[in-house]
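Ticket #4471: structure output looks truncated?

Reporter: J.K.
Steps to reproduce: submitted the chain below (484 residues) through the standard prediction queue, then opened the result file.
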Amino acid sequence: MDENECVAYSNSSGSATVNSRTILFEDKSKSKMQTRVVYGALFVLIVAVLALVIALAVVATQNKDTTSGGADVDGGSSSSGQTGSEGTDLPVVDCSYAASNLDKAKCVLDSYPLVDGHNDLPYRYRRYSNTAVYTVDLTSDLRKTWNTNLSHTDIPRLRKGKLGAQFWACYVPCKSQYKDAVLLSLEQLDVIKKYVTRYPDTFQWVTTAQGILDAFKMGKIGSLVGLEGGHSIDSSFGSLRMFYDLGVRYMTVTHSCNTPWADNWRQDAPDYNETADEKPLGGLTDFGKQVILEMNRIGMLVDLAHVAKATMVSTLAIARAPVIYSHSSAFALCNHYRNVQDDVLKLTKTNGGLVMVNFYDKYVTCYPMNGTESTLAHVADHIDYIKNLIGVDHVGIGADYDGVPSLPVGLEDVSTYPALFAELVRRGWNEADLQKLAGRNLIRVLRQAEKVKAEMSHEAPHEDMLPFEVAAPEEVCHTRLDTW
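Returned output as attached by the reporter:
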């Protein structure tokens, strides 16, 4: 169109210039047809754009589901039918090419994170460096640094052992109960955060199931925290919630001493003296049951590793999320009362929980194995026993490195995990089951706890307080709030 609104066109007889307005008025039918063509084209374009927008939205939704809503490879479920919260997972690997049992074990551990339920390295920092982290080189052999064979953990050995994630134990002794247990526990938590922060190429701070997998994909050791002993919260729901906010993802209900609301394992031993020691509470008190439910509500795993059998049974009767035993073995093979008895194992299966087998030789070889030197094969026996009794979905690894004075031959430190898995390969374990033992079971349990947290999010926090004389029998170490 030129500046005079004329249109130039050509035909078989030549060319001419006509006034566009004349055409508009003289050929209305042609104009209408052109208008319809334009509108039709616009309609098709709009439809195409809408279709593209819808397609992009579908793809975005699928990507979101893959990130936070996809199912586990094994369905995210246990034999009890419970399902975990949503999130991505890693596939089962084919290690049939492996030339040896050890190669196959390493293949599995390269494909899925090995999550150990309990390591007491933070205690070693307290014991040998007075909680100082930056004066200790964790990339060196700490047996030489600290001049002790009781050191089982450092970065070179962690890498050799192909560890994928670790619950670091935030432990303080029972003698701190009613005194400074909360303070000391905070200091131990600070130790963990310091060494995780100091070695960012090795460790990744983790608080979720998905975080474990994400750290593994980055080649880092996912670092979680377990609070080892209910005495560390000083019978305070507020302390419990604040520890969760600081990153703690399980609490052992008791250590080897009662809290005012739960019994510990020592009460099951035949030589327990009620007169000299504490009178049994009968498992959980009413306040103790509230502690369990509050842990469920906030998404903290309940750990029954150190508790009395009555406490186990009481907890399993009310828990709304799967429990763990972060470092316990099978009582039938070694009748130490830190281990889990068969009837409780069956209740644990119903709950969807997980027994993470301990390597401490005193919990691995005792009656009916008295006189037998503890070996790697004996630990494998405990793993097999739990697998055969309640299923492979309910067994894991909780070695207790750096927390015990003696270990089985062949499992002397964190570098030896592949040897244990090689023994299980020799016994016929397949890749899928080895992955479950390594970490898939723990991730399922943690996802389920996260799901229960979401389901209970509408519930108000527990705010009850124990009577002062129960919560703080050593009054000199506590402030009386009724006179504050």
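Triage note (M.O.): checked the attachment and the full token line is present. The two ends are 91 Å apart (CA to CA).
Status: closed, working as intended.
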